[in-house]
Amino acid sequence: MRPKLIVGNWKMNGTLKETRKLLFQLSVEWTPKCHDIEVAVCPPFTMLLIAKHALDETSIKLGAQNCYCEEKGAFTGEIAPAMLAELGCTYVILGHSERRTIFGETDNLVSKKLRSALDAKLTPIICIGESESERTGNETEAVLLRQISESLATINANDAAKVVIAYEPIWAIGTGKTATPDEAQSAHAFIRADLQKKYGSIASDIRILYGGSVKPDNARALLAEPDIDGGLIGGASLDASAFIAIVEAAT
Ligand code: PEP
Which of 56, 106, 175, 179 could form a disulfide with 183 if both were Cys (CB 3.0 to 4.6 A apart)? Predict the structure, then answer.
């Protein structure tokens, strides 16, 4: 049994005033229906503390969008996993395609961050997914196999059970193009089969989220697929009503 998980990735958005408003709307619109499902939001680092206080009365958990792989020291501009845990974060997104393509993060770095996040008792959400040219060149499966094997290189089956995978086809992120439920399901089943080969029966407990232009009107069909265990939501998570509608679609 894999409890569904919906995660909002706010990316680099929101002034203090806008963030307070979004947090207030989320807490006001939060309904008992939403309690059946695990939900988290990942604000920018600077907003984590106010988010923690604002969401205290809801069951919405907190996550960060990234962290570094070292515990402390001379790493200017970086944030350690333990710092996030101390602020009340449960989740941390790692290896998002924007980190990989804009900031040059490699699978190897993602695997080190994964190890450190687990050591700090955070639940890592590891993003994988192919680009448009990789999909049209029939390389999707090869890309997924490489990203799974290299990004998860530092963990064993015991740890794998604590990890969340997010399948995010890059061509669907922020573009308004969504994988069809069939396309997404087939990628998720492929990912789960590979996890099964690597980690055995634990693979059936690993949650695999879909990300890529999930909106209230396409969420229900995607989330009804057997291997889609939730969503990683970008743009739509900045609108409290849209985000809550997606959470309700998952119930
Ligand atoms: C994301 O950035 O993880 C994402 C899925 O974005 P969007 O929902 O805007 O496509």
Answer: 179
Testing ligand 1's pocket by substitution, the residue of 6, 7, 9 carrying the most ligand atoms inside 8 A of its CB is 9
The residue whose C-alpha atom lies closest to atom 2 belonging to ligand 1 is: 234
Paired strand residues for 39: 6
The pTM of the full predicted model, rounded to 2 decimals, is 0.97
Whether the Cβ atoms of residue 74 and residue 40 lie closer than 8 Å to each other = no
Q: State percent of the chain over pLDDT 90.
A: 94
| CATH numbers and ranges of domains, the chain | 5-16+26-249 (3.20.20.70)
pLDDT at 36: 74
Strands (E), 95-250: 123-128, 164-167, 207-211, 230-233
